[in-house]
Amino acid sequence: MDNLKSTVVKFNNLIFGRVIQKIGLHGLFSKISLPRNSSFLEIGCNDGYSLRIIKEFFVPEILVGVDIDELAIEKAKREIIKSNLDDVKVKVADARSLPFKNKKFDGVFMFATLHHISGWQKVIKEAARVLKKGGYFIFKEPLAKFYNLPWRDILISHLHFLAKASLKKN
Fold first, then answer.
1. Which of 19, 102, 105, 167 is 20 to 30 A from 11, comparing alpha carbons?
2. How far apart are alpha carbons 141 and 157 in whole angstroms?
3. Counted domains in the chain
């Protein structure tokens, strides 16, 4: 069973983490006007793939990625060096307790991360805390219908599904 889970995760990361994500983010970003030379944070940056897209599209002065997974951050550091993105910083951090001052960032990004975090309401509050007044919180989550599969509980039991009503309430 662990082998099957590993294969599903690798397939998901390849297809959704690379191909669809890049197309989807370019489509999303083309609808957003953010000032250049801003400061941005990506929560759940994993291996840094989205950081490159954010950097290319918005050209922020400051770009920081955080993830709770130390191995992912190590991989992100290698990718940043390989891509010559020396001014992009990454660090290990829990999204429910971000290690940044209040009102530090002009924009906070989060892609397909929230549903992996128990206590996701704290993440929303933390994103709001570190955003400057008038800042932007840009997040994208997969559709719940996509995960409504018969084998879902076996393969991806760690997910937390977000209901529209609970998002409105929080």
1. 167
2. 17
3. 1
DSSP assignment of the chain equals: -HHHHHHHHHHHHHIIIIIIHHHHHHHHHTT----TT-EEEEET-TTSHHHHHHHHHH--SEEEEEES-HHHHHHHHHHHHHTT-TTEEEEE--TTS-SS-TT-EEEEEEES-GGG-TTHHHHHHHHHHHEEEEEEEEEE---GGGG--TTHHHH-TT--PPPHHHHHH-
Rounded distance between C-alpha atoms, residue 157 and residue 9, angstroms? 12
79-127 per-position pLDDT tens digit: 999 999 989 999 999 999 999 999 999 999 998 787 778 888 899 999 9
- Alpha-carbon distance of 46 to 68, in angstroms, equals 8
Token pair of 103, please?
């009102």
The interaxial angle of helices 49-58 and 70-82, nearest 10 deg, is 50
User: What is the rounded end-to-end Cα distance, in angstroms, of the chain?
Assistant: 36
pTM here is 0.76
CATH number at residue 148: 3.40.50.150
Residue type, 110: M
